[in-house]
Amino acid sequence: MQHKAKHEVEGKNCINKFNAVEDALYVIGGRWRLPIIAVLSDGNKRFIEIQRSVKGMSAKVLSHELKELELNGFVTRFLQDEKHVIEYRSTEYSRTLKKVVHALDEWGKNHLIKVRQR
Amino acid sequence: MQHKAKHEVEGKNCINKFNAVEDALYVIGGRWRLPIIAVLSDGNKRFIEIQRSVKGMSAKVLSHELKELELNGFVTRFLQDEKHVIEYRSTEYSRTLKKVVHALDEWGKNHLIKVRQR
Question: For chain A, where are the alpha helices, taking DSSP H only?
Answer without folding.
Answer: 6-9, 17-28, 33-41, 47-53, 59-71, 98-117
